[in-house]
Amino acid sequence: MFLQNKNIVLGVTGGIAAYKCAELIRRLKEQGANVRVIMTDGAKAFITPLTLQAVSANPVSDSLLDPAAEAAMGHIELAKWADLLLIAPASANTLARMATGMADDLLMTTVLATPAPIAIAPAMNQQMWRAKATQNNVAVLNERGVAIWGPAQGEQACGDVGYGRMLEPNDIVAQVVAHFNTDQQQLLAGQHWLISAGPTREAIDPVRYISNHSSGKMGYAIAAAAHKLGAKVTIVSGPVALSTPSGCQRINVDSGQQMYDAVMEQVRCCDVFVGCAAVADYKVAHVSEQKIKKTDDNEQMSIQLVKNPDIVASVAKLTNKPFTVGFAAETQDVKNYAKGKLQRKNLDMIAANDVAKQGQGFNSDDNALMVFWSDGEQQLPLQNKQSLADALVLLIQQKMHG
Ligand code: PMT
């Protein structure tokens, strides 16, 4: 239970995603949090106060001028009680009202009165999210230190597709856990995480190589997320143009064989291995010592390739293997191929990404993952790689401990 005795005031505002709040409250309570709910009038059009009262096991507050509430838990008490004020879903109207400092209902008054950190999970139509006014409001809130979690991308209730979906309840809980752990606890203290990242380069001759489009962003984000939670982190990195996340150790390699050697040397003292690198499946059988010359009579040339050692599968074969997480980069039938790799490579978990989709996967700032383990799966929707990595690291931690 990662949120034992944490007091969370959940502000629910008007939007179709409000129906997911019952699930969100259950997940927060499962982690040990105490939850008190404030609903706006708009929220009550989508879900009843009675439902949220039943799942939170606390009376729901919805009125600023309620003598009964003021005698018990009025807005100032609620504001002081909170360790975190979380607004989910946060509508476009709510963002605008927060940005201008309105104080005309219970939620807005609590926003102004609370000394606690504030986080919002926006949810709205994708065009409304992209609107300049909304983006200005987000920038203002961001500057004031409000944490912005999401939104995720995907199909919306209105039929549009784009950014605007509220993060799934599990992903919001992961953010809440990360929030409290970065502030107060070192959840991964004492653990050593080994992470492979970036591409490999398989030499053809002294000036040419075979490689791929991996930038290392996903692997480095995982390293930063694990280090933020207190883990000792070593990155075995292919050639990338990124700086090393602060506090992490980095070992540079070029080829798949070098990556294999470095990982096998480091892995014995590790608790977790995450194979995020895009390792070339094949290397050149005979690397030419000199630059290969073009000749007039050769219209074609062939290069013989042989298999590289499979790093993640070798780690998973070790007797005292760490919790071993692979990635799967697929362009079709993502679920089946990923589940096949999970089994064949004897992994504890696999995170699959659809690298055929625009705006995610190789060399982009965003990504989405479908994560599988032996008896379960979870979707982590499209978001920036750092918040995705935060959620993945927490998921790994949860599954490591059953
Ligand atoms: O680096 P970015 O630009 O941020 O992009 C991120 C990413 C798309 C590279 C990343 O999210 C990702 O998918 N990494 C795995 C890429 C890959 O090689 O997938 P695969 O399906 O071919 O391999 C499956 C697993 O086996 C991976 O964990 C891979 O690291 C591992 N493998 C593969 C071959 C090999 N010889 N040794 C391995 O360990």
The CATH superfamily of the largest domain is known as CoaB-like
CATH architecture of the largest domain: 3-Layer(aba) Sandwich
Gross morphology is elongated
Strand order, main sheet: write it out: 12-11-8-13-16-17-18-19
CATH fold group of the largest domain: Rossmann fold
Kindly give the count of domains: 2
CATH class value of the largest domain: Alpha Beta
Beta strand count: 19
Proportion of beta-strand residues: 15-25%
Distance between the termini: 12 Å
**pLDDT below 50 for ≥5 consecutive residues: which ranges?**
none
Mean pLDDT level: 93
Proportion in helices: 25-40%
Largest sheet: 8 strands, mixed
- Class of secondary structure makeup: alpha/beta
Radius of gyration: 24 Å
Structure description:
- With 402 residues, this protein is of the alpha/beta class.
- It has helices at 21-30, 41-44, 49-56, 67-71, 75-81, 92-100, 106-113, 126-130, 132-143, 169-183, 217-228, 256-266, 311-317, 334-344, 385-400, and strands spanning 7-12, 34-39, 84-90, 118-122, 147-148, 152-155, 161-165, 192-197, 202-205, 208-210, 232-237, 249-252, 272-275, 282-284, 305-307, 323-330, 349-354, 366-373, 376-384.
- It has two domains: 7-182, Flavin prenyltransferase-like (Rossmann fold), CATH 3.40.50.1950; 192-287 and 302-400, CoaB-like (Rossmann fold).
- Helix content is 35%, strand content 25%.
- The strands form five sheets. Strands 12-11-8-13-16-17-18-19 form an eight-stranded mixed beta sheet, with helices on both faces.
- A hairpin with a 2-residue loop joins strand 9 and strand 10 (208-210).
- Helix 10 crosses helix 15.
- The longest helix is centred in the last third of the chain and has 16 residues, at 385-400.
- The protein is elongated and about 90 Å long.
- The structure holds ligand PMT.
- Ligand PMT is lined by residues 196, 198, 214-219, 256, 275-279, 281, 308, 310-312, 326-329, 341, 353, 355, 361-363.
